[in-house]
Amino acid sequence: MAPTESTDGTTATVGCPHSELEAQPETEFDLSDPAFITDPAAGERWLSAPRPICRGRFADGMPIWVVTRYADVKAVLSDPRFASKPPGDLHVQSMLARGIPEDIVEMFDSTVLTMDGPDHARVRRLVTGALSARRVRSLRSGIERIATELLDKMDPGGEVDLIAELAHPLAIAVICELLGVDERYREQWRQWSETLAAALRPDPEQLAPAVRGMAAVTRELIEARRAHPEDDLISELVGVHEADGDRLTDDELVAMAMVLVQAGHDTVRNLICLGVHTLLDHPEQAELLRAEPDRTARAVAELVRYTAPVKHTFRRFATEPVRLGEITVAQGEAVQIVLAAANRDPEQFTEPGELDLARPDNPHLGFGHGPHYCLGAALALNEAEIAINLLLRRHPGLRRAAPAEEVAPRYLLPMEKLPVYLEETR
Length: 426
Hints:
Keywords: Heme, Iron, Metal-binding, Monooxygenase, Oxidoreductase. 52% of the residues lie in helices and 8% in strands.
């Protein structure tokens, strides 16, 4: 469940006017170019060719340093001199520009995604204790049940969209089950999640009621669990909130729940559909996985590396001048980390452009690294392992129902559909 940043809508520009960033004559990586949205090849060249740190431009026009090499990416993600929260009021202005209501902005201004230093360590420590390995293990049977029910509903003789009928509903059902969201709210939360995910083209008329609605229902859920705790994550987070010493505020509880829903839904959905899409392009690898299902955990790790369900981290901002590789990042300048490219770095991976589900050494950065490593990585991997394993085992004749180029993912946008024909095991 790793978090993503396709764009955050920021309109202001940071950086020193005489920095190396401003002095470079050309922009090599321009996310404001529509080709990054419309042309799959525009992003593919950045996945396949990690390069020295270079000048770039974010989708909102902000100048950025683009970091794509594995060692450089790890260095930035480990360095406390790079902050997650933009300087000044850029984060607030970004949210307002996207249409997030002013009364909600303050709550979202400081979440685990944008906190740094002691504040981030405090919240992360409290949440990590609630989102334990025990809880993730306890969800496996529920994930298997939900995935099986979704597969049972599919018509093996017809065309099925695996995003609409498997990846999407599985992701939202599992995260709602984890949090303890009542069944009557789950369809509404699915719709809210889709609205919040439209980061590139936010519709303020839809976004404002979605954010307000999700926040209001989350507050109701918190109050209900405070009165009557159950075996779910919200109850555990409320328990942390009520404990002596360090605690989560009510706003932090609401923001954390909403972050988990959005990040967990998007990442899992993308990983499942990109994983299946890739296996359809590599039938020999899919057959290997069918024959040896015990390889699933290693195989999904390789699919994370190869498909990059999370292309970028949030931007980082230098809190002081930092020498990074061949350049110096000036105080206040933005650094964009491209996880997808780092995971194709030939200095780190043998034949990085090849899919190898049996890859023995795979220290990928698909869920980030360092203090902001994805809180829900274990849950996301469990969901993908179960869904892909069940799908391949039940439908050995799985094949596309549309040409690959028609459904190919574009660099900044998730796949919209994955139509397939199924064939059940006899």
